[in-house]
Design a protein that fits this description.
This protein is mostly helical. The protein is about 65% helix and about 5% strand. The longest helix has 24 residues.
Length: about 900
């Protein structure tokens, strides 16, 4: 059994492996012990033993892991590989905006659907410094599915609140005492290494190391070639630091010169490969030396299956660095610069910046960070940027850092601080050398445009990004790469701003399509998703079928990369929900709105918040729940104050707020708000319609007709034809109040004619036009089918169905996932593909769903699930393309 390998020897720690096997039967097992105690060796022995019955999802937390999402993405990838579903899904990708709760839920879902169970193995968990990741990991461990177990290895106890598992007997712990070598294991280790010691010598070595695995290994290396092993053991004493320093000196002195040189010159790296070691030593064949050191178990461990990357034991690295500073202090900065150059050339920018900082070259470190911060954000490394900024000495005021601090503050929502840093960066850019001036100007403009968007300064965005839409003339390849990132984001921001402008929709569509195409070309899927999501919103002037298709395309791409509930896709989710509400599909619209609410948990600014509250208000109003609709419309109207100037939906947002107040009998309040509007806004078609609703509520149908006259004759500005549909219905209601049924029928017919193309229902629901349509003789209208459809919706739009009794048996997580696809038009094979399961699994789940819900077909299952709120309780699945 492969457990502890030293030089050419192996030893069997079967009792310890068996103890871990017994512990792993519990829900969670924690191996907590200091460095060098043999935690990783134990895990490897347990995992690699012949006949291992468990499927293992193994990850090793990277050193100094700041970013929560990189940990979760690695864990998700490991689970997929263990479950055998990795080939059916896109590799999980990082994102600037990250929803830790959603990602933890996603990992739980993957675990729940895995057949036969999985054991999570997380090594070096102490390297995870993200409190957010630890909090979500606690939740994941507390909610593991029955067939899933977890084994965690850490150097010290972590703030994981697992007391409930401990009380339930589902938490096992293996600590340093259990990991210590026994005297018999110490004797076996020495024998396997070819070292002959007396019984007293073995006992003394075990006593003085206290069975500490690293201490024994440190002793074995020099013992193997020491002329007097007994004397060596007798002199082997002291504190950990003393022992380590002594043994490292002994080890270095006994290694060949080439090995000593490699160890010293590469010890400043957290990880090393042959090529990088060749660069730092100036000699070839470093990879062979590293492989030989690992084979000899000389504190060198490979990090990948191909054995190309290596790391040194942490204690070895610490003391090698001390030895490097003692023997070659003048070469340390140069070695860091060489490493930084290598990492820069290989696209590993964060490592390059760390080594530049370690070299003390703070201006160059600032330049590197400024040049690459934007790309790092797009790669999901915002927290790494924070750590790099904090590594600069206190008081460092390098002008290049102002741009990075502005970007960082912008991401964190510290908008005032971001603006102040941006002003400093802009001042520096004006005096920078010509080869940097353009590059800095582009980066500053991109941050400024994002900042303006967060503040809602939509008009200012247009001016800020005009030049970013053109290529960088005379730029280097590196500049062009960075420029492409910046231009793609700038086009997204520009198109978004234009989509909110009352007259910028055509340009918005063009710029968003250009941004998506550029993002696709340069391999920036997150920006592509952002552009497509905003394109869905910008398509509101298009037929609803086009708008819905664009939204679904954006959602499909987002889900492919695991961003289906991230804030970047929120505009598409809300717009899709809105179009469904406009066409009377209220239940489906509500499902997408619930998913949008989840996506908007992150701070997304007033624009997305306004869209969301406005859409929720629409849904409530269409269902006749005006009391519930009023606070949503009021919240949307309030958010307008955070936007600079009028936007495309401004008059509709305010108009529906006033109309809802009137429908609730608060006409005095509505008239006061109406009187406070300036002439331009009061003259819009949407506000004129609101005035008509107020008049009708006050018993003044003639006043209502006067209010909508300019909407109907085309002289009042309107958002779109939907406002005219609403005006026709209000006119019909007014004519009916005045006793002119013929004129009322004509107005209803004109409304139906306009609504026919998109099969609109919302205006009829919002205006409470059911009686108006019922009074229209079916044989006199050219839109009888639409009239019938609308009336079918209106007859149930305000009904509140009582909650029925529960299903015969609770649905499993897998059945719930399948259930949430049944309202779509996806076939069973398509659902299987979407869920990365077999068709047989989907068929089994569907049969079980029918039995538990006591139904016979898919339609009845959907209806029953809606009655039980089983669909509303979860996120809406992706709708299939139509």
């Amino acid at each position: 059994m492969k457990v502890d390998r030293v030089t050419s020897g192996w030893i069997d720690r079967g009792d310890l492996v068996a103890a871990l096997d017994r512990a792993a039967a519990r829900k969670v097992t924690i191996i907590s012990a200091p460095a060098g105690s043999g935690k990783t060796s134990l895990l490897r022995a347990w995992a690699d033993r012949p006949g291992q019955p468990r499927r293992l999802a193994v990850i090793q937390v990277q050193p100094d892991q700041h970013d929560a999402q990189l940990f979760w993405l690695a864990l998700l990838d490991a689970v997929r590989h263990a479950a055998g579903t990795a080939d059916n899904a896109k590799p999980p990708a990082a994102t600037p905006g990250f929803n830790a709760t959603a990602m933890a839920d996603r990992v739980l879902s993957e675990l729940a659907d895995a057949r036969g169970g999985i054991t999570l193995v997380i090594d070096d968990l102490h390297e995870l410094s993200s409190s957010e990741a630890l909090a979500q990991l606690t939740r994941l461990l507390a909610n593991l599915p029955p067939q899933v177990h977890a084994v965690l290895a850490t150097r010290h106890d972590l703030p994981l609140r697992l007391h409930q598992l401990r009380l339930a007997g589902e938490l096992a712990e293996i600590r340093a005492a259990e990991l210590r070598f026994s005297e018999g294991e110490t004797r076996a280790l020495l024998a396997a290494s070819g070292i002959a010691l007396s019984e007293d010598g073995v006992a003394l070595l075990h006593q003085r190391t206290e069975g500490w695995a690293a201490g024994l290994r440190l002793a074995v290396l020099p013992l193997a070639s020491h002329p007097d092993p007994e004397r060596f053991v007798a002199e082997f004493s002291g504190s950990d630091r003393t022992v380590a320093e002594y043994l490292i000196a002994e080890m270095l002195d006994r290694q060949p010169a080439a090995v000593q040189d490699l160890l010293l010159r590469t010890c400043l790296l957290d990880r090393v490969n042959g090529e990088l070691a060749d660069l730092l030593t100036g000699c070839p064949s470093s990879e062979r030396i590293l492989l030989d050191l690992e084979d000899a178990n000389a504190f060198v461990v490979s990090l990948d299956p191909g054995r190309t990357w290596f790391r040194y034991h942490h204690l070895l690295s610490d003391f090698l660095r001390l030895e490097l500073r003692r023997t070659l202090p003048e070469e340390v900065p140069a070695l860091h610069r060489l490493a930084a150059g290598w990492f820069t050339g290989h696209g590993q920018v964060a490592d390059a910046i760390r080594h530049t900082q370690a070299a003390g070259d703070w201006p160059e470190a600032a330049r590197l960070l400024a040049d690459h911060a934007f790309s790092m954000v797009l790669d999901g490394q915002a927290q790494t940027i924070q750590a790099l900024l904090q590594a600069f000495p206190p008081g460092t005021d390098h002008s290049e850092l102002a741009l990075v601090r502005a970007l960082s503050d912008h991401i964190l929502g510290r908008l005032d601080e971001a603006a102040a840093h941006l002003a400093v960066a802009e001042s520096h850019a004006q005096t920078a050398p010509p080869d940097r001036r353009r590059r800095l100007a582009v980066a500053i403009a991109a941050v400024r445009v994002g900042l303006a968007r967060r503040r809602g300064h939509l008009a200012g965005v247009l001016e800020q990004v005009k030049f970013l839409a053109s290529p960088l003339s005379g730029a280097s390849d590196e500049d062009i790469g960075l420029g492409s990132d910046l231009r793609a984001v700038a086009l997204m921001n520009l198109g978004t701003a234009e989509a909110w402008s009352p007259r910028g929709l055509a340009d918005a569509e063009r710029h968003l399509q250009e941004g998506a195409a550029l993002a696709r070309e340069i391999g920036r899927p997150y920006v592509e998703v952002g552009c497509l999501a905003q394109l869905g919103f910008a398509s509101k002037i298009r037929p609803f079928a086009t708008t819905q298709q664009r939204c679904r395309d954006a959602i499909t791409l987002a889900e492919r990369y695991g961003w289906g509930t991230e804030w970047v896709i929120a505009p598409a989710l809300i717009t899709l929900a809105g179009t469904l509400i406009w066409t009377g599909e209220f239940d489906e619209g509500e499902l997408w709105l619930q998913r949008a609410v989840q996506a908007c948990q992150a701070d997304t600014g007033p624009d997305i918040g306004l869209l969301l509250r406005h859409a929720i208000g629409m849904l409530q109003a269409c269902r006749g729940r005006h009391h519930e609709a009023l606070p949503e419309f009021a919240a949307a109207d309030s958010l307008q104050s955070e936007l600079a100037g009028l936007h495309a939906l401004a008059s509709q947002v305010t108009g529906w707020l006033l109309a809802t107040q009137a429908r609730l009998g608060r006409t005095g309040e509505a008239r006061a708000a109406l009187a406070a509007l300036d002439d331009e806004r009061a003259g819009s078609g949407e506000i004129r319609n609101a005035r008509a609703v107020i008049c009708l509520a006050d018993g003044d149908p003639a006043g209502a007709l006067r209010a909508v006259r300019r909407v109907l004759d085309g002289s009042a500005p309107v958002i779109g034809y939907v406002t005219i549909v609403e005006a026709q219905l209000l006119a019909g209601l007014a004519h009916r109040k005045l006793g002119d049924q013929h004129a009322a029928n004509q107005a209803a017919e004109r409304a139906l004619s306009l609504a026919e193309a998109d099969r609109l229902v919302l205006p009829f629901a919002m205006t409470c036009a059911r009686d108006l349509l019922e009074a229209l003789p079916p044989h006199t209208t050219g839109h009888a089918a639409l009239r019938t459809d609308i009336l079918d919706v209106l007859h149930g739009s305000s009904a509140r169905h009582p909650y029925p009794g529960p299903p015969a048996e609770e649905l499993s997580p897998g059945e719930l996932r399948v259930l949430r696809f049944l309202p779509t038009n996806m076939s069973r094979p398509q659902i299987a593909g979407e869920l990365s399961v077999s068709l047989n699994t989907v068929n089994t789940h569907v049969r079980s769903i029918y039995a538990k819900l006591r139904v016979r077909d898919r339609s009845a299952a959907v209806q029953r699930a809606r009655e039980l709120r089983l669909l509303a309780a979860g996120r809406a699945p992706r709708a299939a393309k139509t």
